[in-house]
């Protein structure tokens, strides 16, 4: 066991992890966050997406110990029910969720994209979200939600 110290959703955090423990398990099982989800366990579906130092990563395949000293942002760090993040607001406005299982990963990936490129093209949005799968077929609404934030020029 090793103690991992990092910044989580803006707060300095420490948690004890196993040597081979994925970041997803530390976030969900040890820190009790519900945003990142276990989907495929192979980094292919995007349900576990979080931002690590501003970049979208798949936390199910990212070693927790490698996050030492880093800044990790989950969906919980992007707003609240009372004050939703602009991307979450756009997802609501565009009805870009059906079952909702993939939604936090989609919002985190969309936010990472918009922080890097505030005015992405439709093709750039689709490329950035290509690793986030939605079995409910909400992808077109997700693209519209990201376009909405970009068109409104909202800071994310």
Average pLDDT metric: 96
Number of strands: 5
The total number of structural domains is 2
- What sort of overall outline do the alpha carbons produce when their principal axes are compared? globular
CATH class of the largest domain reads Alpha Beta
Unreliable stretches (pLDDT < 50, length at least 5) are none
Discrete helix count = 5
Gap from first CA to last CA? 36 Å
Order of helices and strands: EEHEEEHHHH
Write the layout of secondary structure elements.
Blueprint: E1 2-8, E2 11-17, H1 23-30, E3 49-52, E4 55-58, E5 71-73, H2 86-93, H3 103-116, H4 122-128, H5 139-152
Parallel strand pairs: 1-5
Antiparallel strand pairs: 1-2, 3-4, 3-5
Descriptive overview:
With 156 residues, the chain is an alpha+beta fold. The chain is 33% helix and 16% strand. It is built from five helices and five strands. It has helices at residues 23-30, 86-93, 103-116, 122-128, 139-152; strands at residues 2-8, 11-17, 49-52, 55-58, 71-73. Strands 2-1-5-3-4 form a five-stranded mixed β-sheet, sandwiched between helices.
Brief account:
33% of the residues lie in helices and 16% in strands. The protein has helices at 23-30, 86-93, 103-116, 122-128, 139-152; strands at 2-8, 11-17, 49-52, 55-58, 71-73.
Write a concise keyword list for the protein shown above.
single chain; 156 residues; alpha+beta; Ubiquitin-like (UB roll); DNA polymerase, domain 1; 2 domains; 5-stranded mixed β-sheet; 5 helices; 5 strands; 16% strand
């Amino acid at each position: 066991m090793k103690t991992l110290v990092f910044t989580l959703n803006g707060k300095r955090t420490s948690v004890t992890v196993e040597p081979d423990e994925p970041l997803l398990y530390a976030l969900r099982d040890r820190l009790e966050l519900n945003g990142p989800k276990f989907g495929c366990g192979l980094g292919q579906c995007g349900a576990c997406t979080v931002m690590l130092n501003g970049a979208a990563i798949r936390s199910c395949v990212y070693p927790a110990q490698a996050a030492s000293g880093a800044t990790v942002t989950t969906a919980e760090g992007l707003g609240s029910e009372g004050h939703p993040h602009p991307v979450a607001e756009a997802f609501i406005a565009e009805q870009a969720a059906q079952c909702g299982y993939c939604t936090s990963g989609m919002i985190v990936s969309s936010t990472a994209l918009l922080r890097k490129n505030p005015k992405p093209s439709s093709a750039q949005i689709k490329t950035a979200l290509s690793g986030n799968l939605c079995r409910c077929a909400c992808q077109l609404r997700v693209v519209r939600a990201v376009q909405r934030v970009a068109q409104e020029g909202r800071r994310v």
